[in-house]
Amino acid sequence: MGFSGNYLNKFDEAGRLSLPSKMREELRASFGNDTLMAYTFGGIVRVYPKSVYDMNMKNMHEAAKKDVNTYKLFRKISSSAFAVEINSSGRMNIPAQIRQSADLKEECYVIGAYDVIELWNKEKWEKESASFDLDLENNADVLAGFMHMLVSE
What is the tens place of the pLDDT at every residue in 76-112? Predict the structure, then answer.
């Protein structure tokens, strides 16, 4: 399993968004059509295979039982989740409240982030992407275990 790539896709007149075929194939092969969508902080919408979402929420729920602030976060994330059905054409309906919360307009970026698919406002992703700088000196600790992916020998 692993979602990757970034694609600029347009919403149709009914508010549906087509998933890129590679992501759709990976999702169906590994999880069927059992998918959830949740608005997360920072204006990003995440599309999860249901099993991944359930595992994350179960872990968060256990932590939320012990801390009131964690429970508030758990409740916010849980209440923003919607079941998503991917139709035979590979389109999924994005609820209006999610599109509004994430400022998703006529088009958005569909980003593969390994175990989740992210939906980003077009301008926000382009700004994020342009500002991303792999400054190896400043990020040496974080990147140390991944250098083989960044440089060729």
Answer: 888 888 888 888 888 999 888 889 989 999 999 999 9
Instruction: Tell me if 8 sits within 8 A of 109, measured CB to CB.
Output: yes
The maximal CA–CA distance of the chain, rounded, in angstroms, is 50
CA triple 18-21-26, angle to 5 deg: 115
The domain locations on the chain are 6-122
Fold of 6-122: Chemotaxis protein chec (3.40.1550)
Structure-block tokens of residue 78: 């849980």
39, 80 contact by CB (below 8 A): yes
**Sequence-separated contacts (24+) of 132-137 with Cβ below 8 Å:** none
pTM of the model: 0.82
Q: In terms of C-beta density within 10 A (0-12 exposed, 13-18 middle, 19 or more buried), how is residue 15 classed?
A: middle
Residues 6+ apart with CB under 8 A from 140: none
Centre a 10 Å sphere on the Cβ of residue 103 and count the other Cβ atoms it contains.
Answer: 13
| Residues 86, 91: Cα–Cα separation, whole Å | 5
